[in-house]
Amino acid sequence: MELAFEKETERTTLPWVGYRARKWEPEPIRWLGVHAMYRLFGIADQWEERRGSSTTSLLARFGSRLAGLHE
Please, which domain of life does this record's source organism belong to (predicted)? Predict the structure, then answer.
């Protein structure tokens, strides 16, 4: 939605003039996703430590793929 200005000047044509932000930003979802990944990697670390594993667990490999980190 654009606002109409009586006089168009250099300042009124700036991209943020008349900008309308969305009513709700997706930050809470992003925050939940990031913290879920932290928890997933924490669980994978605990699991590998308990098992005495020297290889990366399936859970950690899945988390890496999900996070966009490829081994």
Answer: Bacteria
